[in-house]
Amino acid sequence: MKNTRNLILVAMFAALTAIGAFIKVPIPYVPFTLQYLFCALAGIILGSRLGALSQIVYVAIGLCGVPVFTEGGGISYIFKPTFGYLIGFIVAAYVIGKIRENVVELTFLKTIFTLLLGLFFIYLFGVVYLYISYNLYLGKNISFYFAFFYGFVVCIAGDLILTIFAAYISMKLIPVLKKSGYIE
């Protein structure tokens, strides 16, 4: 029963992340989406192992050709400049979940700091991959400042709002899900 519940939760958060890819605000180079919201909620609600697994499932489905990413899908998506953010989702969900597992009492501020640490890894992988992809195989020489500006500075305000929203939602959801026996 527990394994079935975990499989359903992992699949649900993979699907929510896919849906989040299609709720987007087009800005240059890196569109603003709701993927981070569902990645963060996966980590904070499911924990490190299952949260990361939900994001691995999401990325694997996209790489198999199902168009669940912001700009489609398929194995060639690894050559998109924004693929690093997808790698960051996996790491972020794991980090967020790991911190939550080790925090005795989860408060609103602790949740925000936990989510911000996960967001750090999304941007770390995203900006570095953006820089490398443009310079190595897209043949466009860009500075690291350019990648940092368009991959972080332009996007961070929306993700900070999502961080506060995700912290608020998780503070409401976690006690209910624990009481209902859906999470530990």
Automatic annotation (TrEMBL):
GO terms for cellular component: plasma membrane. One of its GO terms (molecular function) is biotin transmembrane transporter activity. The gene is bioY_1. Keywords: Cell membrane, Membrane, Transmembrane, Transmembrane helix, Transport. Its main location: membrane. This is Biotin transporter. Belongs to the BioY family. It is found in: Cell membrane. PANTHER family: BIOTIN TRANSPORTER BIOY (PTHR34295:SF1). It comes from Clostridium tagluense. It holds the Pfam family BioY. It is a multi-pass membrane protein. The chain crosses the membrane at residues 7-23, 75-96, 108-132, 144-169.
